[in-house]
Design brief:
Strand content: 15-25%
CATH superfamily: Aldolase class I
Function: Catalyzes the reversible epimerization of D-ribulose 5-phosphate to D-xylulose 5-phosphate.
CATH topology: TIM Barrel
GO molecular function: D-ribulose-phosphate 3-epimerase activity; metal ion binding
Keywords: Carbohydrate metabolism, Cobalt, Isomerase, Manganese, Metal-binding, Zinc
Shape: globular
Bound molecules: ribulose-5-phosphate
Radius of gyration: 16 Å
Largest sheet: 8 strands, parallel
Number of helices: 9
Strand order of the largest sheet: 1-8-7-6-5-4-3-2
Number of domains: 1
EC number: 5.1.3.1
Number of strands: 8
Distance between the termini: 8 Å
Catalytic activity: D-ribulose 5-phosphate = D-xylulose 5-phosphate
Structural class: alpha/beta
Length: 213
């Protein structure tokens, strides 16, 4: 069974309470934080993580698309993040960010953009709880899946198998029934889906269909 993490970037923020209820069948909730600097868009920050924390006991994975994750890591953990995911392309030293998240008491994930070679993750894989391979350019929901990211999923799965690492691989961007199946077959375990889930008339069915591909 795949782990599904609906991205609330595609939710109706005026009805957050209802939207979180709609995705109650999913195991995780994905929260995209954008600073308008690391990516050309601004989404939301700490208050939304705290608000979602109060609404659900689901696992919250907070994806920091920000230039300086080190300054904010602890605050996102205190706001209720179970996983804090930072970008390998950020300005901060990955090992310091990993330490900061762990010291604050949460799990830690590292993400790479579509143009970043997967090998960048190899150095830190043994200290991660999650690796995120972006399947669209980060910054906006509703984009089309980039098929040339699939070999990176496969390569990371092989790297984990060969090195005895049990680190879940997450994919994010343009995930629907067809692209989810491709990612899962390539070795992804955690599927982030925004538009596909929230645009569905039957959200529970959409979540279940991704879970059991
Ligand atoms: O990280 C993201 C954008 O940077 C989103 O989580 C991602 O794009 C999901 O949205 P969709 O499923 O609509 O593509």
């Amino acid at each position: 069974m795949n782990i599904i993490s609906p991205s609330i970037l595609a939710a109706d923020f005026g009805n957050l309470n209802k939207e979180i209820e709609r995705i109650s069948e999913a195991q995780w909730v994905h929260i995209d934080v954008m600073d308008g600097h690391f990516v050309p868009n601004i989404s939301f920050g700490l208050p939304i993580v705290s608000a979602v924390r109060k609404l659900t006991a689901q696992v919250l994975d907070v994806h920091l698309m920000i230039s300086n994750p080190l300054i904010y890591a602890e605050r996102f953990v205190k706001a209720g993040a179970d996983f804090v995911i930072f970008h390998m392309e950020s300005d901060d030293d990955p090992k310091e960010v990993i330490r900061a998240v762990r010291n604050a008491g949460a799990k830690v994930g590292a993400a790479i953009k579509p143009g970043t070679p997967v090998e960048v993750l190899y150095d830190v894989m043994d200290s991660l709880d999650l690796a995120l391979i972006m399947t669209v350019e980060p910054g906006f929901g509703g984009q089309s899946f980039l098929f040339d990211t699939v070999p990176k999923i496969r390569a990371l799965r092989t790297f984990c198998n060969e090195n005895g690492l049990n680190v879940p691989i997450q994919v994010d961007g343009g995930i629907n029934l067809e692209t989810a199946a491709i990612c899962a077959q390539a070795g992804a375990d955690v599927l982030v889906a925004g538009s596909y889930v929230f645009a569905s008339d039957d959200v529970a069915a959409a979540v279940h269909s991704l879970m059991h591909l």
